[in-house]
Design goal:
Largest sheet: none
Oligomer: single chain
Number of domains: 1
Shape: elongated
Mean pLDDT: 92
Structural class: mainly alpha
Distance between the termini: 64 Å
Helix content: over 70%
Low-confidence stretches: none
Order of helices and strands: HHH
Radius of gyration: 26 Å
Number of helices: 3
Strand content: under 5%
Number of strands: 0
Length: 93
């Protein structure tokens, strides 16, 4: 189903849309605007999904154990040392 509606475009937007139609990339101005809205919808949905995943991760992390700053620093130092050892071993190959 389609719905007819009236919209306002800037001169630059209208010129760009008409150019796309003239180049044969789209059949009409409506097709240009429909494609633009679909891209915006897809982008919005992707951002919403990413935000939901980040919120879920934060909630899950908040339920877990917390490290003190000292414990965190020690864990980071250990990871760096282990990475450096692996990196040096890879370079020797």
């Amino acid at each position: 189903m389609t719905v007819k509606t009236s919209i306002s475009l800037t001169d630059a937007q209208e010129a760009f849309a008409r150019k796309l139609v003239e180049e044969g990339r789209y059949a009409s101005l409506s097709a240009v605007l429909q494609q633009g809205l679909e891209l915006l919808r897809s982008e919005t949905e992707a951002k919403d999904a990413e935000l939901a995943a980040l919120r879920a991760l934060l909630e899950e992390r908040a339920k877990g154990p917390f490290l003190s700053m000292e414990e965190s620093d020690q864990a980071i130092d250990k990871m760096i040392a282990e990475f450096s050892e692996r990196d040096l071993a890879d370079d020797a190959i």
